[in-house]
Design goal:
The protein has 26 helices and 22 strands. It is α+β, with helices and mostly antiparallel strands.
Length: 717
């Protein structure tokens, strides 16, 4: 049998064999719809096909903005001979890791255990019941020193499957059992009394972070260097509370924030941040731009403004960085309907060829074409654009690497519009338009707080638009189910993971604090309560609710919980933060205890691995600070607005703010009373008041912003 249009192809390896990705909504999967590989989406049907054919599954995991995913696709998946071999001896399955982080997580752990490395593209070979038995990342089309070719790997795996099946399956079962044991040892139980938090542990974590800091270039560790957003949130919160390590925390945060702001990691023309730097000095980014990075960095720079900055990077510069980041998010990622897209690609396609970072690179010649020779020479020196270039001989990103002097700042402000206009005429990176619920939740929190701190009502409006989209498209209220992904305003695919519920709840609590609209509080409460039901079974917390039998098999038929932050906070740490906020608003002792149990993950991580426990540390800092509960009551007036603004401008870690509001946007939740506001009232003369509380026990009410500021400082000490 031959396939239409492929008369020279070998006989189809199974009835109806074809590439099945053309109708998938994922941009990453559709990028592979034209491959001669007969890709299937991840699911029971693909594994049943492998069982019926008695062949392994070849699982390829990546994402739309991934440069090396494009490279391997061009070299191997677009090669017909390689595709024919792959189709004949395997069932090829393609996964978008951003849609299925549950799949990505378990097979990443397997890949690291098998090969000692991890990353994307991820290449994993599975039994028909989902157990991993061989894995790696990128494989080249020809052998390289220390790395076999992809065809070599395929042939070796096929030969092992045919000739040594018993050993292959035994090894796969052993790996799954080992991963299951690891999950049991890392289990978090939420049905017992939590351990008491030790404030000294947080100071020890600051000391451990100092030992891994790069004090010269800023940030932590060496190349490749990623924005340490969750760690920075912890350091900023720690710097707001008196301790022996407060200055060390503030200094470390300031060095990292200044270095990133003045580097090529931050797009100096449009304000967005790239995924990471391939160099330790932040001078050569890996060019994809992700919503989750920019949302977190927007919030961190906003919180630095709220803290007041330091001599290394002041509040004014941080505010400029924050507004540039927010403006980029809304200009480059905004979709019709109100939500934000996932990412911009690392590559730009020029004449049909992918070029990493091509849209962002400059040479002395291209600068001169736009600015003329005089300004081009000055800007080249200022931005480290040299004839040699720093990216594959194609040019250099704009990398000042330091603060500008007054004359340099004036030059940059004068030439920047022309450079941006010229760059916008180039071919632009593709955008992945899928909407991920959790990442949009991160954006809601960041935009709401940035709007409040920077006085930008348009940011708050954008946060409400995103929240409205999440409520309308992703949240199924009758079933209390949040869907993780939507495309073109249609939710589809798996239910949200723990991180999705937690990030959305966190964002909605932040939005309620800024707007006072109880519809957002009510929705956040629904998400927290639904998550507590969905992801807790037999007293144990899990990252997912059993979306895949194959994933369950691969981790030894144990539920999984990854406590470590990655590009975004872990689901467990984010849920602890959302639980803590909910308990502060509602007075729920049970949910406060749940947060405390999750924080029980912290003691072994705080000193040994604080760089992957940033959000747990940040949440612990909030818990130790109370967190302070602030209720603003009384009729709407300029005086009440002043009191409200004084609270939103406070760096008190984890503080929750409840605002008595007369306008709830016509929501069905209008009229819902937040427990923190119950039995609180304005003064007898009608003027507004603020109640500052801990564990729902409130002090005498305050009536001026000055009183609030003094009392908050005392409560935080």
């Amino acid at each position: 049998m031959t396939l239409p249009g492929h008369a020279d192809r070998p006989e189809a390896p199974w009835p109806g064999a074809s590439n099945a990705l053309g109708s998938e909504p994922s941009a990453y999967l559709r990028q592979h719809a034209g491959n001669p590989v007969f890709w299937r989406p991840f699911g029971d049907a693909a594994f049943a096909l492998a069982a019926s054919r008695d062949v392994p599954v070849f699982l390829s995991i990546g994402y739309a903005a991934c440069h090396w995913c494009h490279v391997m696709a061009h070299e191997s998946f677009e090669d017909r001979e390689t595709a024919d071999y792959l189709n004949a001896h395997f069932v090829p399955v393609k996964v978008d890791r951003e849609e299925r982080p549950d799949v990505d997580s378990v097979y990443m752990a397997a890949t690291q255990a098998i090969s000692g490395e991890g990353g994307w593209p991820m290449s994993v070979f599975l039994t028909p019941d989902g157990l991993a038995f061989h894995a790696g990342t990128y494989f080249p089309p020809v052998p390289l020193p220390g790395r076999p070719s992809f065809r070599n790997v395929l042939e070796a795996v096929h030969e092992a499957w045919v000739e040594r099946r018993d050993a292959v399956e035994q090894n796969a079962r052993g790996l799954a059992a080992s991963m299951g044991s690891a999950q049991l040892s890392a289990a978090v139980r939420l049905d017992g009394p939590p351990e008491t938090l030790d404030a000294g542990l947080l100071s020890e974590a600051v000391g451990a972070l100092a030992r891994s800091e790069d004090p010269d270039a800023g940030g932590f560790g060496t190349a490749p260097k990623f924005p340490p957003s969750a760690v920075l949130e912890f350091l900023i919160r720690h710097a707001a509370v008196p301790s022996d390590t407060v200055e060390a925390a503030r200094d470390m945060a300031g060095r990292a924030l200044a270095a990133m702001a003045r580097s090529a990691l931050r797009d100096q023309l449009d304000g967005g941040f790239a995924r990471y730097s391939v160099t330790a000095d932040w001078s050569v980014p890996h060019f994809e731009k992700m919503l989750y990075d920019n949302a977190q960095l927007l919030r961190v720079y906003t919180h630095w403004v709220r803290l007041g900055g330091n001599p290394v990077i002041g509040a004014a510069e941080a505010a400029e960085v924050a507004t540039g980041c927010a403006d980029w998010m809304l200009a480059s990622l905004a979709l019709e309907g109100g939500a934000l897209a996932s990412s911009l690609d690392a590559d730009t396609v020029v004449d049909g060829v992918h070029h990493e970072g091509a849209a962002y690179l400059w040479t002395p010649e291209t600068l001169s074409e736009v600015l003329g020779p005089g300004d081009a020479a000055a800007v080249g020196a200022l931005m480290n654009v040299s004839p040699e270039g720093t990216v594959s001989g194609l040019g250099s990103p704009l990398h000042p690497g330091r603060a500008f002097g007054e004359v340099e700042q004036a030059l940059w402000e004068r030439v920047r519009p022309a450079l941006l206009a010229a760059r916008n005429q180039r071919n632009q990176p593709a955008r992945d338009n899928k909407v991920v619920a959790g990442w949009n939740g991160l954006a809601v929190a960041a935009l709401a707080e940035a709007g409040a701190v920077m006085g930008r009502t348009d940011y708050v409006d954008a946060a409400e638009d995103i929240a409205t989209y999440l409520e309308r498209v992703h949240w199924n209220a009758p079933d209390r189910l949040l869907t993780r992904v939507s495309h073109e305003s249609v939710a589809r695919g798996i239910g949200g993971l723990l991180e999705d519920y937690a990030f959305c709840a966190e964002g909605l609590f932040a939005l309620y604090a800024v707007t006072g609209r109880t519809r957002w509080y009510a929705l956040a409460e629904s998400l927290v309560l639904a998550a507590a039901d969905r992801f807790v079974e037999d007293g144990k917390l899990a990252d997912s609710a059993g979306e895949s039998a194959q994933v369950f098999n691969a981790q030894g038929q144990q539920t999984s919980l990854d406590p470590f932050d990655n590009a975004a906070p872990s689901g467990a740490s984010a849920f602890a933060g959302a639980l803590l906020s909910y308990a502060a608003y509602s007075g729920s002792h049970a949910h406060r205890l749940m947060a405390g149990n999750i924080l029980g993950l912290l003691p072994p991580l705080a000193v040994r691995a604080p760089r992957v426990a940033g959000w747990l540390l940040a949440t612990a800092q909030a818990a130790l600070a109370g967190p302070v509960e602030a209720a603003v009551v009384g009729p709407a007036s300029p005086a009440r607005a002043e009191l409200h603004a004084s609270l939103l401008g406070s760096p008190s870690p984890g503080m929750v703010v409840a605002l008595q509001s007369d306008d709830d946007g016509g929501s069905p939740a209008a009229g819902v009373e937040v427990p923190l506001l119950q039995h609180r009232s304005g003064a007898a003369d009608g003027s507004p008041r603020v109640y500052l509380c801990r564990d729902m026990v409130c002090e005498r009410p305050l009536q001026t912003a000055a009183e609030v500021e003094v009392r908050l400082a005392a409560m935080t000490s």
